[in-house]
Write a structure and sequence with these properties.
By secondary structure, the protein is an alpha/beta fold. It has helices spanning about 20, 25-45, 65-85, 105-115, 145-155, 170-180, 195-205, 205-210, 230-255, 270-275, 280-285; strands at about 50-55, 95-100, 120-125, 140-145, 160-165, 190-195, 225. The protein is built from eleven helices and seven strands. Helix 2 (about 25-45) packs parallel to helix 5 (about 145-155), helix 3 packs parallel to helix 4 (about 105-115) and helix 3 (about 65-85) runs parallel beside helix 9.
Length: about 280
């Protein structure tokens, strides 16, 4: 830790001591900062929820997998144009979010920007590939050091996920979300689209997991395949409508009629957390 003193002889306060903040002893503070800074920005920008795009940083719009770049860009534009109708009181719904880098991530942010919508980039410092792309909305580009804090923010606001072709990072991110959904660790329903059936069938043999009993047959229902932006968009639209828009509208009608049931019994099978989100619901108790 630094022992440098100010002009009046005082040692700098701890939160201005860069040696301390960068030390192992202050790791908890750095972790907390990577939670609190995005939280504060999302609240200020009124980002209510997201649609997350995963995929390879190595895909280029002029490379051998250019089709997937173009498809990700088109799908992100379609989602953003559709979501624009749900903006109320300045709140933004189903905002396209990516890992903030090049490739599929760039394509997703670019498509959302094409539609004139806000779009988020959750970047992370890596020795190669990972620099923020220019299509992220100013003020919604974040830089993470800790992978698990970045993953938290992918999952925390996501109401849907689209997984484009990718490598180890994409596989890691996809199976993290699928595991959370499988084990009911997400306090919400999430629509997962795996894009590019031919690619993923060559990369993964998920049927073998079912055949050997490693996963249950029902676990294959946690995601759906799509091969065109139109097909993927329809899966997303239906999932977001059935899981969120329709229940929210029903809750609104109940509130207007002043016949709200007790908390936890808003609709059969639905809780206050389903409507408000876990963090808002807990603040009401």
């Amino acid at each position: 830790m630094t022992n440098d003193k100010t002009s009046d002889g005082r040692k700098p306060v701890a939160y201005l001591d860069q040696d301390f903040l960068n030390s192992p002893d202050a790791r908890a503070i750095r972790l907390l900062a990577e939670y609190l800074e995005p939280l504060a920005v999302f609240r200020h920008q009124k980002i209510r929820d997201t649609v997350v795009f995963f995929g390879s940083a190595r895909v280029r719009d002029d490379g051998p997998l250019a089709k997937y770049y173009d498809d990700a860009r088109r799908l992100a534009r379609m989602v953003t144009e559709w979501a624009a109708q749900f903006t109320e009181n300045g709140t933004h719904r189903f905002v396209v979010c990516s890992g903030g880098g090049p490739g599929i991530m760039e394509a997703a942010n670019r498509g959302a920007a094409d539609a004139g919508g806000k779009t988020i980039g959750l970047n992370i410092g890596l020795p190669f590939e990972q620099l923020p792309n220019p299509y992220i909305t100013p003020g919604l580009s974040f830089e993470f050091h800790y992978f698990f804090m970045r993953k938290l923010w992918f999952a925390y606001l996501a109401k849907a996920l689209v997984v484009f072709p990718g490598g180890f990072g994409t596989l890691d991110e996809m199976f993290e979300i699928l595991t959370l959904a499988q084990t009911h660790k997400l306090a919400k329903k999430i629509t997962v689209v795996v894009y590019g059936l031919d690619y993923w069938k060559r990369v993964l043999n998920l049927d073998a997991l079912v055949d050997t009993g490693a996963i249950a047959p029902k676990d294959m229902e946690l995601f759906q395949f799509a091969d065109t932006p139109e097909q993927a968009f329809e899966i997303l639209r239906l999932g977001l409508t059935e899981n969120y828009l329709e229940p929210e509208a029903a809750a609104g009608r109940l509130a207007e009629s002043q016949e709200m049931p007790p908390p936890g019994e808003l609709l059969e099978g639905w809780t206050v957390e389903d409507f408000l989100g876990p963090e808002m619901a807990k603040t009401s108790k």
